Task: structure prediction
Amino acid sequence: MVEIEAGRAGGVTLARLEGSDGDFLRRFFYRLSPETLYRRFHSPITRPEQAHPKFLLNIDHRDREAVVAVVDCEIVGVARYVRHPGSGAAEVAVVVADDWQRQGIATRLMTSLAGFALDNGVERFTLSMQADNTPVLRLVGRLYPGAAMTHSQGILEAVVPV
Result:
């Protein structure tokens, strides 16, 4: 991890995830409740390997980027984007450990990630979330007021400007 923003109150530091950070990411996985894992991956996963860690660690800092929130050398949140091939759009996802939710970490992560995305020519984020995920809906409302969402089978999707 390479620090990009020093800690504020609460000691949360932002850093860029690197391909060599697998052990940190694995420990983070075990800090997530089954509900948080389900909301992030849209699937009832129980083991880190089900989250495809090789893909999650395949970071090139251009088409695939990830920013992490770190406290006491441990990851407490991750925001990432993966560019849709040949386009200015990227799928984005964010997850914060249960004990650290609702403390502004997701907002900080997404803001930092958006800066890297813009620097790399990403113009739009695509978002997918469960329709009953109120905290994420509030986050989207704060960051992207007026975002138009489509609904299909319990999943909301939106395309927002970075």
Notes: Residues 105-119 form the longest helix (15 residues). The chain has a mean pLDDT of 91. Strands lie at 2-5, 13-16, 64-71, 74-83, 89-96, 124-130, 149-152, 155-161.
